[in-house]
Queue: 3 jobs
Job 1
Amino acid sequence: MSRNIMPTASVHPKQPCKATNQIDSPYASNLHTNYTPTESEIPQIKEFLTDPLKRLSSLDAEIERVQSILDELRHERCALSDEIEAHRALISPIRRIPFDVLGEIFVHCLPDGRNAVMSSREAPILLGRICSAWRSIALSTPRLWASLHIPTPMEISETGQVLAQPEPTFIAKMERRCEGAREWIGRSRESPISISICIPTHVYSYELQPSSMKTFEVAVAQILASSHRWRKVDFRATKDSFTRLQQLAEDAVPLLESLVIAGGSLRAWDPLASDSSGRWTKFSGLLSARKLRKLSLSYLKEDLLSLPVRWSQLTHLNLDLDIPAKFGRTSRGLRYSDIIKVLRRCPLLVSCGLSLESTAFDVLLQPDHELPLAEYTLTLPLLENLLLNLSGRWDECHLKHLDLPRLRHFEIKFQETFSGSQASRPSWVPFLSRNGNSVKQLIIDIPSLTRDELIGFLESVPLLIHLHVSSASSSSSVVDPEVIDRLTGTPSAENPDCLCPLLEELQCNGTHCASFSESQLLSLVQKRSDTEKGGLLKRVDVTFHDRREPKNFDKFLDSLIGSGMKVSQRNQSGTSRQAPSFTLNRTTSSYLLL
């Protein structure tokens, strides 16, 4: 039965409630006034209130009776509702899902881009705490336990130092963690597994004693028995901690496809020294795994060509062999002649990342005059992704001789420590002019980048979809009104200078990157919304290095809102003032400007 509930009028706390049947009182005219009754009126008022007080007591009793009935009804309703929901749960669709399908759903709950962690807030442990049935399914799904990240934290003292001899409580904690890792890996049964073990980067210091690295070695000891099932492994520690891994035989890792090794040193070392302790040698089976396709090496001092890697079968390669200055060491350096020899052995490369930092050891590297020009050139027919982290060294210019006909993603970054001018830095426009016809994503972070060089980049990439320009330390803005004007136009016979006609995403970040106005930004968004004339601009992220709002800026915002766009603005602190920053995301029919 439907009920019509009328809203009740609000009553001021100082105002009396008006009863339905008012008392016919001889003192009605004196109520709610400052009138003071006489001595003779006081007993009369008390006698007059006898019947109303009885009525009030009767109403209280009735309210208590009705409230008791209401409470009983509410209790009955709650119990009935619980039984109904319990019966509805029996016919819930998820109960009818076969266990194997539910297990497959559980697998898709695992984190993307990293290994699972031993946390009750994430799958798979979280799934096992929902109910006994789900726990049973989780424990009987080996693939759910086929990835694991094992952190090996150090015990830090109050002064911020890593203790050479950990406390017993810390040792017990690490033992429990290792026991959990053993049980976790056991649940994966015979499935190929992915494991990562790392030491926090803040402990990479040559003052540390080897004993403080025992936690990494203890963790490694727990997973060695399962090496025959390793598919992807990621080890990050100091070189002194890799001894047991370096001794693995090739047959011990028959399924290994992806390997990441990042190792520093516990103490300063001479780049020309021939110390062979704790080194990766030709007998290191981890590097010579038969199925290895992806390899990342960081902070190693071995000669690349001396490593037993099956270079010819690699599809992904990342080399970062220079030890950063923050680790307090001298680096051996990685010269182009080393790189070209390695790349020549990798004809199947699809993705490659190279980091060449400028270090004090550069003085020991002499120019590659012994190599003829023909030796500088190299064609990698399958390479689609190239990441270069450069520092302005003399030999980096030779990388421009790479011929990459299938290049899709190109990222180039110069270290912030690079202080050279554009004149002292070789231009990369010729490289893109030769390889940019198929590039769809371009990421540029060059401190001394000029507007003309940026335009040269963009003219070389006609199929570009994603553009990210960052220039935090540049003295002048790179993306200026001229660049935006050429991006704003639509391709046509009347406008042949239009840049990147298929552009869908534009990011322009850094305190000295964008110098165009907000009105130009909004004009770019509006004119790039016509898919018939070019690419549909889906996302724009811009940080301005100073504030300049046009007089009609509010009208622009109003017009955007009126056309169905969601608009807001965020500010980021600049060097001397607030720097306005915009992020625009196209939804189904509107933009979101954050």
Note: The mean pLDDT is 78.
Job 2
Amino acid sequence: MVKLKLGPITDDKPVKVAVELPAQLQRDLATYAEILARETAQPIPDPVKLIVPMLERFIATDRGFAKARRTSPATSRVTNP
């Protein structure tokens, strides 16, 4: 069994985002989705739905970012307009 950084993908309220991905990254996302489905015994998620959890995981585990955010409290409270 493979230990992936992502767990099961929850069905969340969809939000439209426009992103251009290199073809190889799209293929990698599709492959990741297939492996994730096999490891979690769930249906294959839309590879696009992996982007947000991957970004969340990346940010949550980036020690440099966490340290910078702690030392600069003003940047941690950025809100959407």
Note: Residues 23-68 form one domain.
Job 3
Amino acid sequence: MGQRINLKTIITKIGLLSILVTFTQCATSQKIDETAPLQFKDAYFQNWVSGVRGGGAGFMVYLPVDGTSDIQLETVYFKGKEVKLSFDNSTSVYSGRYTDPKTVRKDIVMSSDPKEEYNNKVSEIEEKIPFELKEGECIIAYVKNGAKGYFKLDKLQEKELKAYPMRPRQ
């Protein structure tokens, strides 16, 4: 009799755990639209590096759109990163810039007086994006009529690396 109760308890716990995992997966998954609500000309990304040590490195995402629309693009998820988008009315291009925090040099105050070290900033920890993406794929979050949606672009073209100069030309 004692073994039956233990077996029932184990089966019940496994069942509850399975249900919990299922609901957790459903809650974190996002519905991705099959077709993009906007037409893009030539969407691409471009890696960049600063010419100054500690100046940073990262990538830019460019999403040129055809015409005007009531849809506003907010965020692009690309290369495992979340990048906010901004729109340039003159060129009709959404763009987003990602800077790898590990490539930016931060000044740190080291002192025997803890009060002087108080203003040191804590390193930011990047959160994992809620999507599984293959190489070159991106998910774009948008808002249309107050409702948030997502769609996927299968392949962003890569343009040549942009290396910023160490100092301005004279």
Note: The radius of gyration is 23 Å.
